[in-house]
Structures are given as C-alpha cells and as structure tokens.
Amino acid sequence: MKRFSAAILLLVLVVAGCEEAKSGLKGVQGKVTVDGQPAPEGSQVSFNMVGESYTFTTRTDAAGEYAYLPPPQAPLEPGEYEVAILPPPSQAIEDETGLSVEVKTKGAPKSYGKFSNPRSSGIKTTLGGDVITLDITVET
Predict the structure, then answer these.
(1) Are strands 124-127 and 79-86 parallel, antiparallel or unpaired?
(2) What is the pTM of this model?
C-alpha cells in the first residue's frame, strides 16, 4: 500500500510539474525609440494576440524602456501578437482654482500614425517561453 501511495504521489508531482511547464509566457521587455529618441515616459506598448481578443498593455519609463513580467499565477498567453505604440495619455491635474483639467503630456504627439494601430504598425512578434526582448523603432 505504501508503494501504491508513493506512486500516486509521484504521478501527481509529475503532472503538476508538466502544468508548471505549460504555464505560458514569462514576460516581455524592451526599449521603444521614436525618431531616434527614447519614447516619452508613459507611452503605451499594446500587444494584441492575432485572431483572439487577448491583449495586454504596458508603459515606457523615462528611458523608453518597458517590461511586462506577470506573476506565475497569471501568465501571458503564448502566441503571435501584433504590437502598437501609443503616446502617453493626457493627465488630469488640478489648476490654481482647484478644478481638475486635462493636460496633454509634454512633448507627446496625439498619435504615432500607423504605429498606433496594431493591424497597420507592421510590428509582429511571437511570444512564448522565457522573457522575450523586443526593441521597437518608430519613425514618424
């Protein structure tokens, strides 16, 4: 009986290990440059799975770098993605009268043209396995 219990325990551990191995993409990171300069801080990097409704978005830092490294409990789906780059959104600030007003992010355009649409950007990548590095160059 002890051998049978040990065999079942071993089988459960092997199956759990296989599920861990199939847990999906561990993440994506890279740098976005716009016309040779780092993308403005807060620029959005949007990944849209081809043929699916699965998407995720991350933002750039002041150096134009981004990283999306989800926890193991919520892994990304491996597959082919179309990528879009969007300028940072406007910011809500309080003016001198205490009212909240929308202010365009300094130095950010309204759009990066074709790069702001995942279908027309021409940027595609296949994500899966370990952390993927994807550096993106936008020419406006």
Answers:
(1) antiparallel
(2) 0.73
